[in-house]
Each structure stands twice: as structure tokens, then as C-alpha cells.
Amino acid sequence: MVELKTEKSIDAMHAAGQVVARALTAAREAARVGVTLLELDEVAREVLREAGATSPFLGYRPSFAPTPFPAVICASVNDAIVHGIPTDYRLRDGDLLSVDCGAQLDGWASDSAISFVVGSPRPADLRLIETAERALAAGIAAAVVGNRIGDIAHAVGRACRTAGYGIPQGFGGHGVGRRMHEDPEVPNEGRPGRGLPLRAGMVLAIEPMLIASGQDGYHEAPDGWTLRTDDGSRAAHVEHTVAVTESGPRILTAR
Fold first, then answer.
1. Does the annotation place 93 within a ligand binding site?
2. Which in 83, 111, 142, 241 has the greatest CB count within 10 A?
3. In the predicted model, what is the mean pLDDT of the chain?
4. Residues near 87 by Cβ (< 8 Å), separated by ≥ 6?
């Protein structure tokens, strides 16, 4: 069931989204060579604490997970696509890092992710990240009243495929509201004009995930959470929580 949010509820989700935005900005600023992923998680925790927000990630345990998630961010390095668990791994020069974060504030959730390079970037990594951001922008532009979920999926997928990148099948965006994951699912590839009609008051997390090699294969790491590319190629993941409104898409997690 898809819940349509009121303008007041969307404003409340925007407040949660701004906490997420601050947490991601702080984590990116702290992400230097030699810093551990656990230290980045603590940076994000402090932002949530200061805002009086809680984490929808911490303790989250969907049906596929062997254990509850132990952190407030997902930190996915290089060939990790999504759901990376923060560890004592120390960032190295040239690492491609994707950070995903959520916040729950006054009963409402928001969710967002960024990808960036630590230290000296490879041109190929910059192209991958730029394409991911372009795919996200295309998906957001399609999130308008009168379109359908398939229009968002098609916009994201076309930007990824045209650039020659792979898309991990079975993972994508989702509805957001009182909980971090709600209906509907928002795939990263699909046919335009298909799927659920978009209505004012729908709030969606749109989140492209790209694999650099152009292959789609991935596997679950031994920790039961992290998804890694089968061929070891690098991946990027970006995300915004977006409200569908009569006046167009409203990005609730804009930084």
C-alpha cells in the first residue's frame, strides 16, 4: 500500500532529510587517507545525536540479513556496491567510497547516499560517479504527477546503459515515510509508461547503482550484508529522497 503524504508530513520529512544531508557532508569532509570507516560512522552518529534524530539503519534486519545492521551508515569501498558495514579499514589514496545514511526525526524518515573518491581520483572513477549523479537527476526529473514508476526506472537505466555501465538487478529505490522502506519499489531499469502512476504526496528514494565494467553480476559478501561486483570492478551509488508534488519533484535530502 502506498501512503500519500500531506504537505505537513513532507515538510517533516524534509527536516529529517536535512539531518541526513548534514551527516553525509560531515562524513565526506572527514574521509581522508588513513581514516577508518568506523570513524566515519561515528562522525555521522554525532550529527544525528546533535539533531535529536535516530538511525533507521542501526539494528535494521530485513529477511535476507543474518544479523542486525551495526552502524548508522553503509560504507561501501571500491568493488562494494551497497550495504557495506563500517569496519576498521583505513581509507587509501584513490579509494572510491559510497556512503549511505538515513535519519528518523519526529516519526519521519529520509534516506540519501553519495559516492566520491578519497585523495587522488582516477578519471574512470570520476566518470562513473558523474554518470551516477546524472542518472539520479534524470530519475528525479521523471518523478512528476502523471508519469509512472516505469518512467523513473527508464530514465535511470537509460543514463546508466548509454554510458556503458552495469546495473545490479533486484536492487533499487523505494518508498519512504514513517519507515525507511515502504511501497512502492523503484527499479533502476524499466519500461516507460508502465507501473504505478505517480501522484502528489508520494515520497520516493531514487538510488542508481552502477558497475563500472558494464556487467551486472554481483554477490553477497561473507558478512551477509555487503554486495560486491562479481568481476571486482568498481561501483558507485547515489540517492535522494524525493517528494512528488503538484509543482514538481522536491528533493528532501538536498545538500
1. no
2. 241
3. 98
4. 36, 37, 38
Is 189 annotated as contributing to ligand binding?
no
pLDDT tens-digit readout, 167-204: 999 999 999 999 999 999 999 999 999 999 999 999 99
Question: Is residue 133 a known part of a binding site?
Answer: no
Spatial neighbors of 102 by CB under 8 A, at least 6 apart, are 20, 55, 56, 57, 72, 109, 110, 111, 112, 180
Question: In this structure, is the dihedral angle defined by the CA atoms of residues 27, 206, 143 and 107, taken in order, positive or negative?
Answer: negative
- For residue 212, what pLDDT band results from cuts at 50, 70 and 90? very high
Per-residue confidence (pLDDT) for residue 64, from 0 to 100: 85
Task: Tell me if 14 is assigned to a ligand binding site.
Answer: no
Contact 237, 98 (CB under 8 A): yes
